[in-house]
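Example 480, ligand magnesium ion.
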Amino acid sequence: MQFESVIGLEIHVQLATASKIFSGAATAYGAAPNTQACPVDLGLPGVLPVVNREAIRMALTFGLAIDGEIAPACRFDRKNYFYPDLPKGYQISQFEQPIVGRGTVTMDSVDGDGEPRAIGITRAHLEEDAGKSVHDAFAGLTGIDLNRAGTPLLEVVSDPDLRTPEEAAAFFREMHALVRALRISDGNLNEGSMRCDANVSVRPVGTSELGERTEIKNLNSFRFVERALRHEIERQIDVLEAGGAVQRETRLYDAERDETRPMRGKELSDDYRYFPDPDLLPVRITSEMMEEARAHLPELPSSKRARYVDDLGLSQYAARALANDPDTAGYFDATVEAGANARQAANWVMDHVAATLHRHETDISQCPVSPGRLAQLIARIEDGSISNTAAKTVFDALWEEGGDVDGIIDAKGLRQMRDPDELARIVAQVIEGNPDQVADLKAGQTKILGFLVGQVMRATRGKADPRQVNALLKEALGVG
Ligand code: ADP
Ligand code: MG
């Protein structure tokens, strides 16, 4: 029997607010353990939480971006469970009234037909994160770091619309690009700013009823999402083919062994006894709040990609590479706005600019060469003043010393030789000076042409356009 898989993701996005969701404590990553733990987030007696307005705005921004239903009013609930990293004994979350209801995320299809796919979003709600258990700091003991307790999370739940592990990973990527474009999260996977739980079931191809599902907890990379799901789908198919039944359970992915296994019993308990948090007032979303959120809404990665392909003539690959990182997209857009040819600008940003940033271990938001300068540089390639190779030298000089494009071209003597008569004279000299090679070339050793081009380039100290030299030599020698 043939099976197909059905996948829904629950993605936790850490919001980039300056302070925690119900207290004024800082949220900077990497502080010494427990230095950002605050009485409110620990739920000490007598404290009162207050909702962070910035977190509400970010959730609304996300809701608008996915064309989601925004609840006119929402409230917070207590989700009760016992765990050492949750000293309050409950997590403040949203259960019955999430801030964002049904919406849609658009992503590229992974089967290469280029048609975008719409993935349904069931809901997105705000909640606080828990602390962290630290297993490697003390021999035989587990430490608890509560710095993360109370940092704001947006949990985004997708419909079971995803069909393959690749598609699930692509959706996770799309969400990553989206929240970064919206500037509501740094999306730093290494620091746990985005984690996801993957729900998966299988069913015989041709049937429409959903099979029993399992949930794989806490996947923190695109690759792990794909690998964990691939493994779990195989496991479920094996169970069904052996005549068994898939058990509804929560599993963990062990990346080292590349397998999933069930979590221990007490962690499975899902009787959370939700009830409205009596300390927090319901939140009413005003039209001013909606306007403020709308004002923060940038062009979305999916629209950017479509614009790059349809209007600027870029490849799907280039569109993805540029549009999915907001800083790269901003730099590229500014370069094109400054008048650069879009394809040249795309190649430069993806190639020499990216390589130089990488070499200096910095990122494009810190690039010392402005988009305007890059546009001038590209204009000089386009009008034939300099070769591509010379342009890289100019770029490196702009990077190191600043200055202006034409000034550097002249100071370094990089302007291409464009006088056809002068070039023709040099070509003639090279032909005259290399009679043996010319004879070999005419006898059919076509590779010799490259040698002669090199000789001309040398004689011009690299200032000629190699394509032009090539054409002139062929013409002068009468070879094809
Ligand atoms: P819970 O309340 O247990 O979190 P939800 O109904 O909220 O369950 O669903 C959680 C996630 O599981 C969603 O992303 C949803 O799309 C996905 N999901 C639900 N049923 C199935 C199924 N049979 N197979 C795969 N995914 C599913
Ligand atoms: Mg859930």
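Summary: The CA atoms of residues 104 and 120 lie 5 Å apart.
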